[in-house]
User: What shape does this take?
Amino acid sequence: MRRRIAVRRTSVISLTTGRTALVERHRNGRWTPALALDFGATWVVIRTSASDRVTSGDVAFARQLARAAGAFAEEVARHYFGPTNGTHGNGKEVA
Assistant: This one.
């Protein structure tokens, strides 16, 4: 895996979800896997470091991404459902 260089962030790109936001996994035997985040007019495609092979760094990154996505989903659900009092975060009853 490559060594990371500490760099001060100078910009942030924020893509918000909505009814049309999608996540798709693309698989084809001719190239390595890709993950596409579709926000309507903007797409973010995550691919491995090389189009013809997968490295141990790619596997480590994919697992880190999966863990972060799982944690994100749990946090979104926690905010949506709110406290464990039987209501959503917006106060509506849970069905």
Remarks:
- The beta strands are 22-28, 31-38, 43-47.
- The longest helix spans residues 56-81.
- The two ends are 47 Å apart (CA to CA).
- The first strand starts at residue 22 and ends at 28.
